[in-house]
Amino acid sequence: MGKTYERIDARLRAFIERQPVYFVASAPLSADGHVNLSPKGRSGTLAVIDELTVAYLDFGGSHAETIAHLRENGRITLMWCAFDGPPTVLRVHGRGEPVFRDDERFAELLAHFDPSADGTALRAIILVRAERVSDSCGFAVPFMDYRSDRELHEEFFDRKGEDRFSEYCESKDYVAVSIDGLPSLPLPLPPRPA
């Protein structure tokens, strides 16, 4: 059944990189705060940096709950499910931080991703340091076939362009402040590094 690992070894890394979708969970410290669970999956937007570090590109278009939770307490869990092949569920529990566009580490971290994954709506890179890596059986996870990425998000924001994306962020509820009133994305949105 389930096993805990010291690190993300080559086998686990290959499993992570094969999955077209994964899920991110975070929560505020407040007992009555809202737990957040987000699906992720745009190709090339996740990188295994090293055996204890993963990162993903955070795009606008929805709330910024994960960013708010990470700024408050750093707790995060990423989960991958095998929808084909052997039944497996893999979780990385860890501490995360948003690396914003004006952070000196932004460009260096961005180099770990497929250049085609970068886009207009990129607002941060979420950096996660693993504290616990574990798997469990995926016996109840259904088989599903992957067809392709949806391109609607990328196309929508590419039409807006960088200047209008910043305006878009400022016009939306729950981007600067979470649904629980926690600080989220710093606005105005910092410009992209040159």
Please provide a written account of the structure:
Strands 1, 2, 3, 4, 5, 6, 7 and 8 form an eight-stranded antiparallel beta sheet that branches. The relative contact order is 0.22. It is globular, with a radius of gyration of 17 Å. It has a single domain, classed as Roll (Pnp Oxidase, Chain A). It has four helices and eight strands; from the N terminus they run E-H-E-E-E-E-H-E-E-H-E-H. With 194 residues, it is an alpha+beta fold. The longest helix has 20 residues, at 152-171.
**What's the rounded overall pLDDT mean?**
95
Annotation field: number of helices: 4
- Named at the architecture level, the CATH assignment is Roll
End-to-end span in angstroms? 48 Å
Shape: globular
Classify the secondary structure makeup into a structural class: alpha+beta
The share of residues in extended strands comes to 25-35%
The largest β sheet comes out as: 8 strands, antiparallel
